[in-house]
Amino acid sequence: MTTTHTDAPMTPAPTGPVEKTEQAGPGRADRISALLQQHGALAVLVIVSLVASFSFDTFATGDNITNMATSSAFLAIVALGMTFVIITGGIDLSVGSLFALGGVLAAWGSRHGTLVALLLPLAVCGLIGVVNGLLVARSRLAPFIVTLAAMLGARGLMLALTDEGAETYLVAKGSFLAELGQGTTLGLGNPVWITLGLFVAGAVVLRRTRFGQHVYAVGGNEDAAALMGAPVARTKILVYTLSGLLAGLAGALNAAWLASGVTILGNGMELEAISAVVIGGTLLTGGLGYVSGSLVGVLLLKVIQNVINQIGSLDSSYQQVVSGAFLAVVVIAQTWLGRRRQLM
Amino acid sequence: MAELALRTPTLDKDRVLQWLQKYGVYAGVAVLLVVNIAITPHFLSAENFRTQAVQVAPVIIVALGMALVIGTEGVDLSVGAVMALSASVVALYLGYGLLPALLVVALFAAGVGLANGALVAFIGVQPIVATLALMVGGRGLALVLLPQLEDLRNPTLASLGSGDVLGFPYLILVAAVLALIVAFVVRRTTFGRQLLAIGDSRPAAQLAGLPVRRVLIIVYVVSALLAAVAGVLATARLQASDPTSLGNLMELSAITAVVVGGTPLTGGRVNIAGTVAGAVLIQLLTATLIKHDLPPSWTQIAQAVVIVAAVYAARGRGKR
Amino acid sequence: MPEEVLAVRGLGKTFPGVRALDGVDLTLHAGEVHALIGENGAGKSTLIKLLTGVYRPDEGTIVFEGREVSFATPLEAQKAGISTIYQEVNLIPLLSVARNLFLGREPRNRFGVLDMARMNREAEETLATYGVRVDVRRPLRTLGVGAQQMVALARAVATDARIVIMDEPTSSLEPREVETLFSVIRRLRDAGIAVVYVSHRLDELYAVCSTVTVLRDGRRVHHGTLAELDRLQLVSTMLGRDLGEVRTEGLTKFTGDHSAATDEPVLEAKELTAKHQLHGVSVSIRPGEVVGLGGLLGSGRTETAKAIAGALPLGSGSVTVAGVPLRAGSTPAAIRAGISLLPEDRKSEGIVPGLSVRENIALAVLPRLSRFGLVSEVKVDSIVDTFIKRLRIKASSPQQKVGELSGGNQQKVLLARWLAMNPKVLLLDEPTRGIDVGAKAEVQKLVDELAADGLGVLLISSDLEELIEGSDRVVVLKDGAVVGELSGDDVTEDNLMRAIAGSDNLQGVAADG
């Protein structure tokens, strides 16, 4: 190389822009890996649904589909909040308990009017989310242990409210809350519409707002995000709050749908939500994820559950085996694809 | 001067936290014992001792394995599922005799442990996720194998669950022996030291030529085997196989015992005596609340507070 | 004279036991490209961290654009107009190029929602002026490292930077990408931005920089116009050696050559190749011989040692120990064959900080001291005892945690760990860096003794004196390839510096000397 001595800052600059074309783009294999990661779950969902419709007359019926849609809605709302948390590289194990707590609070509150019935679960579950967020972001405790404690605490609170689970509060028939949970619009249950609305809003927030950018940045590279000016702690507190709020809302809607605050719900729901999010292509290491994928993940879990029920001779516990196996396969595939694409 | 004045309080706080982390669990156990002896009727009875011992034994046994896993900077969420699985398998194979049934249980547990370990050590999946898959699938499998509660009528199994030596139930004796063995392994064997080195600094362990993958796999297999032992013993005590609820939330209790006992989640240190004390502490706390007619919901809230307090005290200690 | 942007006066910083920076001055003018150079530990990174708000200075002032400043965080410095481009690209790899470029200042429409069309368009336009023409919707990580650097640079400039600090920006760039970077730097210069350029590659300094500051041991030892110094002068200033004065007697504890080294090589590494790091490096060591590995930082010294120890995946090449070929890429296999590596990064790759001195010393040799997996505490005690005495390791007891020891004692513990294995070959990567004078002398003496006992030693050091007086032969690396070898009387500072500077080919130098 020649040693050009640029000893004076007055040396004229090279004229014109520097010609450079970036060739180090993704190869075909890389693109297929990316496609698989993002849309693999959708492909499996379509295939499973097709096979099921051909195999069982009772699968692709209007009734069955609307039933599946409604029963998916609550898990989907929880998974939406979980998606945000996981994209920041965290995890929220308290959502199952918050779901149950939200349901009990809504049913209890419905005696004092619809407003209380909706605001009370949101306030309490949101607050627990804030505490989770503060402990993770400010005290720098491990998310899994913090939310594990919150899971216990929230369930304890729920049991304390219901005389150790003996008391079941009912949602008054004909109230607005009951209508919200049980009514239908254009042939689909209201919870389904609410869920769809939340997912659209969630997608916009994640992809089209500064907060969404911060969520990705914090999960992608926390140190760099801080250097680039992203408010790391605030972002983390917000995602745990959002997760708590959505879990509480899902619980409230579920109580409205069932017309009562059932205390035994929500056990293991955090696992289902995490499975759905991961199956949907969101990386557990953070920084990459899709709201739409989580919805597909939820649907896939529910379709599998439905199919197992259709088979009839199979016990519903097969659902868990299949979910577990599915999760393992997805995680292995993700790790492998991720390593190929050098995401981790 | 100003600097000195500023520094002293933080130093004290550090020291208090350090002391709490080291001895807090024993102090907690002692306080609860004294309080209960003072205010709880019949606390010092043989019957009560028996009840508490029998209840805490499975938690101790599972927590021993969990302590090893956490020592490698991992976590094993599948232990409750393994307990359920072992309950199902024992019920299924008891017809061939107790020993063959136990062998099959061991095989199943080792399989789960191998799968966990392989996911973590070879594929590089985070421990939480790897063991989550088996937590979901394991309980499902247990229920597929045995869909509902089944009474077991095997005299040997029954005596294992209810018998005692000089007033010490077999269950707590097994737990004590296992605790001694695990403590011995941690302190006196090549494996124990390699485990701690891997948990403290994986890159240094790798460059020092340690068999990192082998150690990780063995740790997860041991954790699963211990969970299986706990599952069989709990089943023996119930004289029934109950895959639906056996071991529910056990992963939580075990992690709590380990963390409260002063083993940091960041790995590199394992405190077996503390782990046992941690399990006893949680058990005493629950017993105290129940005996004074405080509802179980309070127990859960109290346990949540204890976990957060323990992790908070351990914050910033050990490795960063 | 252009406007003065930055005036640093008497900047000092002390860390426990180390005077990292001592009364350093630095002046930057608008449109100046300033080279900041110095060997490891000279204080470059401390200076950069003080300027960018990572550390606070103990003494001295920083005047930026006429105002005295004191930044609490890197973010504050960045907002004020001092941006830093790090060696590792500090962006979010999974986010799209455009989103990275605009993070925190995204254009929004009247609903508060990001205006993606405008963002992508503006990102494309901005990057085009940096010669990067890519689909800005792609994740950043799909770009080459060079293009990623450009995005980081564009981001820094777009945030109205007045000073851009570049810390070894070319360490992972292809030659073509380096050229692009240079033309961008020239454009920044013409736009009146001051650039601080840190690099060990001398060619680059002469290609883009006009002025230079040389740091050594925390002090500024030279500053001025770069063109006034030629490469050899630059290297000698940096290393602190007078050209004319080549000492025959040094300050180190090495006692001289090990003439017993006549046997067949105990270690032969042939044509080691690793992507972007090594390009066919060959080294051989005979028993009783100390072979030095010279070269500047980033020349491939550490990578060569790691490759031999099986800790770096190899593209091609082979390692044989005492004639027996080694399984590539396996640390345990290398250790079994008798290779021991003392890693450069002692704290994160060497010691296990939470374990005791005793456990650390016994860590590798443990299986040999055990029967059926049970550790023989007696044997461990006797080995630990032997080495604590032999190496004079100062610890309150063998039970003390290694993390609490001084650097020198930590290094001795690591040496003990490997000597307990009875190795055939010892790879020492910067064995005396960051340890006190006494321990340094002891380690050097020990290396001599070990060689005398018949071990083959590979010695990597940035300390020229150590390298020259400790080695029988010095292999010089540059950019991941061997550029020369000095042996016998040719091992002199003068020759070594010429080889490192790469101004002439070595045969010429040797003939001259």
TrEMBL record, chain B:
InterPro entries in the record: ABC_transp_permease
Subcellular location: Cell membrane
Residues forming coiled coils: none
Cell inner membrane is among the record's keywords: no
Protein name in UniProt: ABC transporter permease
Pfam families: BPD_transp_2 (PF02653)
Domain of life assignment: Bacteria
Sorted UniProt keywords: Cell membrane, Membrane, Transmembrane, Transmembrane helix
Organismal lineage: Bacteria, Bacillati, Actinomycetota, Actinomycetes, Kitasatosporales
Transmembrane is among the record's keywords: yes
